[in-house]
Amino acid sequence: MNYLLCVVGFVVLLAIAGADGAGECGRNSPDMEAMKLIPCAEAASDENASVSRSCCLQIKKLGQNTKCLCAVMLSNTAKSSGANPVVAITIPKRCNLANRPVGYKCGSYTLP
Ligand SMILES: *[C@@H]1O[C@H](CO)[C@@H](O)[C@H](O)[C@H]1NC(C)=O
């Protein structure tokens, strides 16, 4: 039992450290950056929810590095907080971000 807890704890630590996909967002892991998208939680899980201004502001900041934005939207943190990648990927569009990279490949998803 203790052993199992250790293994689980270690895997969680690795995830927090961003061992997978490290680098997309520079020093911070995508999972850390995902904390900034807390205002987007509803918009990322419900395609019909209106996107809050504070969410759009964060998306705009993160979106200056599209690779990072993709990594954040597809991160385990985003997923475990209920974000649906298919829906999350539509947020830049729903924010009417003028300079968003339409057609950019976010993993297996394409930015609308
Ligand atoms: C969003 O609205 C559409 C059209 O009204 C509906 O078909 C769909 O089920 C809704 N999605 C959610 C997550 O509520």
Give your account of this protein's structure.
The protein is mainly alpha-helical and 112 residues long. It has one domain. The chain has eight helices and two strands. The protein has a two-stranded antiparallel sheet. A hairpin with a 2-residue loop joins strand 1 and strand 2 (109-110). The model has no long low-confidence stretch (mean pLDDT 87). Residues 32-102 form the Bifunctional inhibitor/plant lipid transfer protein/seed storage helical domain. Keywords: Signal. Residues 1-21 form the signal peptide. It comes from Solanum lycopersicum (Tomato). InterPro entries: Bifun_inhib/LTP/seed_sf, Bifunc_inhib/LTP/seed_store, DIR1-like.
Mind sketching the topology for me?
Blueprint: H1 2-17, H2 30-33, H3 41-45, H4 53-62, H5 66-73, H6 76-80, H7 85-88, H8 91-94, E1 105-106, E2 109-110
Antiparallel strand pairs: 1-2
The protein binds 2-acetamido-2-deoxy-beta-D-glucopyranose (NAG).
SS field, number of helical segments: 8
Structural class: mainly alpha
Low confidence ranges = none
Share in β-strands: under 5%
GO molecular function: fatty acid binding
InterPro entries: Bifun_inhib/LTP/seed_sf, Bifunc_inhib/LTP/seed_store, DIR1-like
Signal peptide: 1-21
Domain Bifunctional inhibitor/plant lipid transfer protein/seed storage helical: 32-102
